[in-house]
Request: fold
Amino acid sequence: MPSRSAAADRPSDRQRVLLPGASDRMPWTALTAGICGVVAVVPLLLMALLLFALGGLSSDSAREPWVWLIFLAPIVQFVAALWLFTRHGWLPLVLAVLPSVALTAAIYWAARDDGDPVGPGPLLIVLFPLLAAGFPLARPTREWLAARTGRARPGA
Reply:
């Protein structure tokens, strides 16, 4: 009886992707990105509620009309995390960091104009969105998204 190598029994990389259930498991990078994206909603929502209660970036003025736009940041972050969890794509989670950065920059800009010291506290607003934006760029996450069922693969 001829002997066969163990490598001959293993499916190739091309066959492994086509096997059912082989690519269904979410990689840890995608799970971490999604969790960071959902956790990022908490400080964004708290800051949005605080700014809404104050009426804007300065407490001595009436409620400014743009304050309602602050609530878009946590909504965009949450929807982008769900977008990744449902295997639709990674780009919205990466782009969802932009409202967080803009809000943090606005806080530091308003404090500088008033001459108030701010410290590193507002950087917590942007910490988890930055983490959530970094993990989807990892190769396992992108391969997991590319191997979803129903998606046409180039060259296949």
About this structure: The two ends are 36 Å apart (CA to CA). Residues 51-148 form one domain. Confidence is low (pLDDT under 50) at residues 14-20.
